[in-house]
Write a structure and sequence with these properties.
single chain; alpha+beta; Beta-Lactamase; DNA-binding; HTH_AraC; Tscrpt_reg_AraC-type_HTH; DNA-binding transcription factor activity; transcription regulation
Length: 746
Amino acid sequence: MLRWIHFKELYMRIFFIIGMVFVGMALLYSLFLSQQISKYAINEVNGSTAVKLNHFKNTMEITLRKLKVSSIQLYQERNIGYWLTATAKDSYLNHLIDLKIGEFLSTERLIQDVYLFNLSSREVFSAKSGPVPFDNFPDQAMLQQVVNQTMQPLNFSKVTFMGQTELTLSLPNGGIDQTPNGRLMIVLDKTFLAEDLLLSNNEFEGKWFVVDKDQNMLMGDVSASSAGDIIHAGNQWRSDGQDWGVQSITFSDEDWQLFLLSPQGIWKNKLLVLNFKVLGSFFLMIALLLVILYFLSKHNYKPLTEILGKIRMYTTGAKLSENALSISSLHTEFKLGIDTLVHRIEEQNRSLKNNDSIVKDELLRQWILSDTVGPSLREDLQQKLTIRLNKPIRLVVCRIEDYTAFCQTYNFQSRKLLKFAIQNVMEEVLRTYGLKAETSDLGSDHIVIVLSVPDTQKHSEQELLGILGDAKHHVLQWIKVAITVGCSDPIEPTENIHHIYRMTYELTEISFITGENAIYTPQDRKATYMNTPFNGLDTEQITAFIQSIRIRDTDALQRQLQQLFNQLQDLPADESKLQLIQLLYVLQKSFKQLNTPGGMVGIRSQLEPFNNLKEVHVWVEETLMNLIEQMSNRRTQKEDIFPEIVEYISNHLHDAMLTIDDIANHVNFSVNYLRVIFKEQNDISISDFILERRIEKVKELLIKTKWSIAEISSQSGFQSKSHFFTAFKKGTGMTPSQYRDEHTQS
């Protein structure tokens, strides 16, 4: 027949011959593969069932052993022993037992109830019913089993209670070999126990049940009558027209027997479907191959040659000559071209990861925390920011109120997300009023907003404060976080932004003195005591006062308080009150993250109810003692505090005035304790860590920017150029210029 078939074109002859070979080979191979799959599937089903059977058994044994251990621990509890051996009723002991059993049941979901039987007082105590006399116990038959000791101690037993079959575990008082005065009986929740077994074997699609040594069914998802038939059916069982494979195994501890039934009909149907899929996929593959082979033969690989030529042109810029490519070299050329394209795409993806928003945040932090701004930083800022840096600006600081509760409610990562949400809400509200704004999170209890003054000039001063108040209201409404807002006067971007930022932050602390819920401006500062010289205590006294709190020296603190109030008694009433307010303000600034007096908004109104200095003395002492207790609790959270310390350092690397004291104040630890916990967590000192981070930042700026070395020096947190060059040379073995030249060339 084949000799009658003749194609004029060569590609058709090649296509026909190769196509017939493909079809014959695919048909034979698919039939062979179907047979092998059938054999393999049967073996896999049997092996899988055996594995699941062992898994079921191990899960059940582990669960029952854990229940025994938990029950023995409860049985050995002191108050349980007192109750079991008590000769008279004791309501207080009943209360203790009720609490203990309730605590036990809250941690053991597989236990339905706990019963205590006191043979001396003839009383039963259960978690659900409490103490009940023997005569009032609802199931006297079960009670007699307990009294007559027919249940084997430390073994699970099948007991009929209130018409329901339950699994119980009993323990005698005084030990197994002694005459007990009482018993403790645990009643298991078979429903939850079955759920645990199924959850741990969630891929099992069959049925299962458990019988005791007398072949009485204990639990499972088949009926008791069916269980008897299955036990005597052997390895196969048929029910409702469906075949089931039966396998069983015996528990070593309880002498129970576990039966697993795997549905063979489902596997047979799946196997049949799989065979059809194999045959269908092979024929589909052959059809596709024939189509591909036809076009390859017809066009003599011309389309592939054209594609490869375009890839060669794109990757190397050189044309692919018609004679340079052979069929044998086609795969190599394609692989080389595709690998080159993939490499190009990966390089582009890596460059895209340098996200504009991340770069903008970093530049904003450098600007806000630096005393001076170089031309390169200003140029980069202008490219990233929506506001113009040749026009006046305003700084707005939004400080989170009650930061203590905020830190206690949310962990470090959640706090970062919430502050990010506050930034978005503030930006969105300001944008609705036509204001351009840029926000930055400096890693503390506040965010900073930079407003464009030309936009704000469209509104009066009162309108601007109203807009900020509206934004503050939306933050409270949407994020459920209260904030205090301070707004600076218009300033030039060339001014010392760092100083203006610190002054604006202090505006948010006016609420500590006034207690008013307002938007604070520099004019509000003049109406408070914040600018009044503090003459009540000298600097050494204040430092000693704060240090006593940080090191938790209550004796020294009490002495210093007594000395302070002795001084206040010699002053006029108004002067005494002023000095006291200023002292509490200093404490609020030093311990703003904890529940210090700074947490009480409106300190003047807080002092009004006190009749004399003695009452104020008692109140301040109690508040500071509570502060010391909070700091002691906070010291136990070293692992949670460490990421916050690292982020604070990263956000303030550009600040040349950053000190270990600043970091200690941020987390409210003493400097010595901060050094200890940082060394424990990071294996290097905090000073070395800051220096390493600054050097890494300098390396990044040298490679990725065209900033001058002098500008990099001023923006990387080093206090002097000599310190910058010395530290970089020591850390890298090269000068900054040498490092830039070497890595730019490479």
